[in-house]
Amino acid sequence: MDKPTEVNILGVKVNKVDLDLATKIAEEMIKRNKKYYIVTPNVEFIMAAQKDPWFKECLNNADLAIPDSSHFSWAVNISHLKGILKLFYLPFVILPPNIIPGEHIPVTTGIDLLYSICKEADKKGFTIGLIGGEEGVAESAAECLMKEFKNIKIIYANSGPVVNADGEVDSINKKSNNIPNIPMLDILFVGFGQLKQEKWIVKNLDKLSILVAIGVGGALDFVSGRVIRAPLWIRKLGLEWFFRLTIQPWRIKRQLTILSFVEKMLSS
């Protein structure tokens, strides 16, 4: 398996892969019959890693880091500039990534990756598991996927334990052990939320009978239909984040992270 090209964004490794290549690499991982984990970093991941060295380590040790941000093309290009040139390039941060001048970093969301891998699993018989989300979300997501992919083998679906920011089961809201009774799987999609899911995977992958673990954040909410996804034309413009903000105004605090990210890129 050839190592995909890497870019460095504020000390965090991100692989330059699109959806098709990411899916192909995940398939190759399964065929190798070894343990791997995949992360899907976005701007919030990058900024969290600036304050949390272990989280940064979890990201940089991942076997594949799939770019899940429309701002990464801008970030990679501005990182090569110096002084006042950075200020001239600043306005491009609001443009869709495919028309930003310079190097282009493809964008692949966790939900697109999940669907793409499930499509291949439907054809090739890979076994799938889903864990995370609010009560009943993983189960609903499994039902939706099985309706869409008639031959898919989803043999595990559970909201799982309540995991804290250290990747450990929350002692107050403990619903089960750190390691639920997960059967042998080719792929486990983990939706505990950023930081939590990556740390949980790193802590537990060696103890689980699975080959590939993938952190997918809130993808299970979309698959289950609990959260509406932006129309395709909005996604192509790189404005899915804005659509989510309009239907989930509480995300404003998370979106403000983009301002911190821009400031950090300008000063780096």
Structure write-up:
With 268 residues, this protein is of the alpha/beta class. Helices cover 43% and strands 15% of the residues. It contains 13 helices and eight strands. The protein has a six-stranded parallel beta sheet, with helices on both faces. A two-stranded antiparallel ribbon has the order 1-2. It is globular, with a radius of gyration of 18 Å. The two termini are 33 Å apart. The model has no long low-confidence stretch (mean pLDDT 89).
The number of distinct helices, counting runs of at least 4 residues, comes to 13
Mean pLDDT: 89
Spatial strand order of the main sheet: 4-3-8-7-5-6
Tell me the Rg in angstroms: 18 Å
Low-confidence stretches: none
Classification by helices and strands? alpha/beta
In whole angstroms, the N-to-C terminal distance is: 33 Å
